[in-house]
Design a protein that fits this description.
By secondary structure, this protein is mainly α. It contains 7 helices and 3 strands. Helix 3 (about 45-65) crosses helix 5.
Length: about 200
Amino acid sequence: MRTQRIDQEIFDILERQFNRGKGESRHEKKQKGTFSAQSDFIHAKNTFETYRQQSKAFAKYARETLGIRRLNDLKLTDVGLSFEYRKGCGDSPSTLKKRAAAMAKILQCSSTDFWFKCPIRKSEDIKRSRYKIKMDDRLDEEKQADIIAIAKGTGMRRVELQRLKPEQLDLRNGQAYIVDVHGKNSLIRMMPVLKNITTR
């Protein structure tokens, strides 16, 4: 039997955790008090993709720098050393925190077990991926009045607005609702559309 590379082992673990988490509500588990950050589940596709990306970068470091080709040969201190290395390369606290969360999920431990303390995130240090443009501040009130009205009337997040479809509008007893809104952590919501909107 051919020895699996660490990359494939990591991917197999993440895929198994994601498949186990499908159909499970993270929100409901939190409400019932049965949710644990160290559980063997990944509930959201975005989380799966983020963990996959971060762990892929770690696997490359483990192979090329530490000579590790199997997860069994990996020590928790090796993971901490990789974070120190990436910190020295200029990775932001946000990126390091994501990578720590990904590796903790894969290895089923706490991120504190890596003996690495993530730097504190400061808003003034956040770097944008592109230059600031006019659209960042506000939508065009004439050209995009309908989008603005929906956003104000529902409080929907930007990504939720981008996914919105006409069939999600539902009228019940004279009240308009947006149904089947898939938000953060795979939480599905039904949102009333407010008629009288006051601007702060």
